[in-house]
Amino acid sequence: MLKLAITGKGGVGKTTLASLLSRLYAAEGNTVLAIDANPDANLGTALGISSEELSRITPIAEMKELIEERTGGKPGTTGGIFKLNPKVDDIPDRFSIKKDGLRLLVMGTVKKGGSGCMCPESALLRNLLNHLVLRKSEIVIMDMDAGIEHLGRATATAVNAFIVVVEPGQRSVETARAVKRLAQDIGIKKCYVVGNKIASDADRQFITENLPDFELLGYISFNPKIAEADRKGISPYDNDNKVISEVKSIKERLEAISR
Ligand SMILES: Nc1ncnc2c1ncn2[C@@H]1O[C@H](COP(=O)(O)OP(=O)(O)O)[C@@H](O)[C@H]1O
Ligand SMILES: [Mg+2]
Question: Cα–Cα–Cα angle for 139, 59, 105, nearest 5°?
Answer without folding.
Answer: 15
